Task: structure prediction
Amino acid sequence: MARWPPERRLPAEPPTPTPAQLDATLAATAWYLRLYHDTPDDPGVARMFCDPERVGAFAVRPEALAAGEPRALFRLLVATTMFQRRADLQIERVLRGISAQDADALTDPDALLAAADANPCPRARSLAALLTECDLTKDPQTALGTCAASPGAPCDLKRHTVLLKRYGHFGKVPTSLALTLREHGVADLAALRQRALEEATDPADAAARLESMLRRSWRVSDKIAAMALSMLTNPDLSPGLAPWSEGLDWSGYVVIDSNVDLFLRRVQFAGPWTYAARRAFILSLAARIDLSALKPGLRPYNPRLVQQAMYLSQSALNRKARPRDCAHEEPSPCGVCDLDRAGICSLRH
Result:
């Protein structure tokens, strides 16, 4: 079984999955591969971020993403950071509501750095100051961006927090991503990947280093880093759209959110509920599922696809919104559907 992160960073050995846990995971994975994998309706994967109908002006051209064009990669990363602590469909509406001009401003690292350098507030000019000193928030009366240090002073971060329609401090995200690149002495994400490859001892170490580099940015958690990097590296997640599939061990990039946690609770995962322990358990489950036997052409071992099956099987809102879901089939497959028979259908149990 592949190990993630590298051996020296692993927590205690994950518990061996029980037959019931494995059966439920296998049922969810077979259901996901049959209905959603590599389709326009699969949420949170690279193909979605190429679709203007889903993410509006934040959509990147498929050919630009496949070629690893730096501007496309940065745009995808900024859009990805939005998908936390709110329903996917709500975030998609927010992204679609941002104009092309504003989306460009939010996703141009050179322009973000130039604006940070020109900002009269020193808290916006370095990553350390932005992370520890900037108290950007929203005025509860006007919903406009403000801060304690210079509440009335104009600031791009204040404008960004209004545009992104998230928490008051969320306006720091795009600039912090650009400042993270500068902190590592690189101009773009492709160069950041190259830095990780040069410093690493092996592909797993390179992958872990790159993840750690991204997590220096404001609001880039384990989940967000894994979500972005899996899209860029995992060759079977959105086939043909992963420009970094070579050189990095992408097997550990799994995205753990509330829906994945719901699945883990359904199968009685005993914990501990740290990100590392949950990730290790998902990798352990995936090591026992031969994806190539379920869908020809896939690599046998791919924890991100197994995790995506967990996530989508429990995401009632996403499923109800997609006509391809078995919930909309006539006659109803309930009673014979993989999810229903395993007792893990989010719409039935």
Notes: Residues 1-42+251-349 form one domain. The chain has two domains: 1-42+251-349, 45-82+85-220.
